[in-house]
Amino acid sequence: MGRGKVELKRIENKINRQVTFSKRRTGLLKKAQEISVLCDAEVALIVFSPKGKLFNYSSDSCMERILERYERYSYLDKQLNPPDPSSFGSWTLEQAKLKARLEVLQKNQKHYMGEDIDNLSLKELQNLEQQLDSALKHIRIKRNHLMNDSISQLQKRDKLLQEQVNMLAKKVNEKEKAHQVHETEADQQDCDLNSMPILHIGASSNGSQTSETAARETEVRNQFVVQIPSWLRPTGE
């Protein structure tokens, strides 16, 4: 004899209602996991207990991605089939969905901060750990990328500064060489000037000169001095 149809109605006994909720919740989560594995489906399950406690399951490591996908499909469906503005029930349902999503996001945020995790199961803690590890991995990759870019820019600046230093050093060396050449030429001119023979008029054997001899010597000397360039004349001429 087959089992008769059981009428579904609210269980009045509080203890029996809580026990039934715990059993059915476990079975529901198990079925959601089975359908996601067997059929390769994306499943997101959200259940609130009579006391307002949240229970959820997600086939993806991040339930927000499934909820965002649901929002996109819902938005497209609303664009194709806009609801009746006079329907108050649709707006009430939308408000309830947004409120539920906000609560999920707030609870997940607390979990990411390490808060309110005492009631999480082992699997939920493992999923939370995987999400945090994945987030840390992305953060480290981004940090390393920025550090490599910064090091590359510093190396380019160092190379540019080194080239400028080498250029300045080259200019200083060229100026020093030009200064040394100028000093060498000046010294050579002084040596040439000092080595030039100077005409001396000797005195007579008896130490006296006649006026005619002195005048002749003066004339010869003046002619010789005129022929010498001014820059080669001894000082005092």
Order of helices and strands: HEEHHHH
Estimate the strand proportion: under 5%
What's the N-to-C terminus distance? Answer: 152 Å
CATH third-level topology of the domain at 14-81 and 89-119 = SRF-like
Distinct helical segment count: 5
Named at the architecture level, the CATH assignment of the domain at 14-81 and 89-119 is: 3-Layer(aba) Sandwich
Kindly provide the name of the CATH class of the domain at 14-81 and 89-119. Answer: Alpha Beta
Q: Cα-atom Rg, whole angstroms?
A: 53 Å
Helical proportion?
A: 55-70%
Quaternary structure: single chain
CA-based shape: rod-shaped
Largest sheet: 2 strands, antiparallel
Low-confidence stretches: 198-209
Number of DSSP E strands: 2
Structural class: mainly alpha
Overall mean pLDDT: 77
Strand order of the largest sheet: 1-2
* CATH H-tier superfamily of the domain at 14-81 and 89-119: Transcription factor, MADS-box
Pfam families: K-box, SRF-TF
Protein name: FRUITFUL-like protein 4
GO molecular function, one term: DNA-binding transcription factor activity
GO cellular component, one term: nucleus
Question: How would you describe this protein?
Answer:
- With 237 residues, this protein is mainly alpha-helical.
- It is built from five helices and two strands.
- It has helices at residues 14-38, 63-80, 88-112, 122-195, 211-227; strands spanning 44-48, 54-58.
- It has a two-stranded antiparallel sheet with strand order 1-2.
- The N and C termini lie far apart (152 Å).
